[in-house]
Amino acid sequence: MVELTHGFKIDGDKCRGRMRCLRSCPTRAIRVVDGKASLNPDLCIDCGSCLQLCPSGAISATTITFAELDKFKFKVAVASPALFTQFGPNDTPAQVAQALLELGFDAVWEYAVDIALIERAITDRVKSWPGPFPLISSSCPVVVRLIQVSYPSMVEQLIPIDAPREIAGRELKRKYSQELGLKPDEIAAIYIAPCQAKTISILQPAEGVDSHLDGSVGISQIYNDILSKLRKGSIKVESLKGFLGSGELFHWGVPEGEFPNLSQEHYLPLTGLTDIIKVFDDIEKGKFGNIEFLECHACQGGCTGGNLTVANLYAARATNLHLIAKIPKSDPVFEKEVERRYAMEDFSLRRPIRPRIIKEEGLELRDRVTRRKRADEFLKALPLLDCGLCGAPTCRSHAEDVSANRAELRDCVFLDRERIESLRIIYRK
Amino acid sequence: MANELLREAYEIQGGNFDKAGEISSEIKVILKDLGISASNVRRSVIVSFEAEMNVVMYAERGTLTLILTDEDVCLEVVDQGPGIPDIELALKPGYSTASDEMRLMGFGFGMGLPNMKKNSDEFLIESQVGKGTSVFARIRLNSNG
Question: What is the ipTM of this complex?
Answer without folding.
Answer: 0.79
